[in-house]
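Both lines are given unchanged directly below:

***
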Amino acid sequence: MKTAQDIMTRQVITVLADDSVSKVGEVLMSSGHHSLPVVDSEGRLIGMIGERDLIDAHRKVHLPTMVTILDGLIPIGGMREYDTELRKVTAVTARQLASSRVVTAVSGEDADAVAEKLLRRDVHAVPVVDDHGLLLGIVSRSDILRHLLKP
């Protein structure tokens, strides 16, 4: 049985939490990856930033459509989507732009379970962390394919 540790990429391209959004864009574009882990100065995982996050950061904010019912304003589509959109377009650092709810794996986790996470959550990569949140590596779709296609 192969584990996340067996198939993960150990040399992970990361960005620091305090890096600017423009630097994140440069690193993402030059890396050839679809997403990057955001780490603090000690290497602990803070979140992930993907291509979609950077696209969202450069879009125009659309105010939610409101409906008045009994003298109350009710947003159609919800305020959560608006709050997320507003957070992304006003982000200055990687920490502010990163998605903090990240699907992670632990080093001893079965490789098939990691593949299931990638597919079920429709993400390009799953960071592998230790018990303290320290980034150990990353398992991408390419890593899974190499594992599956290896004789």
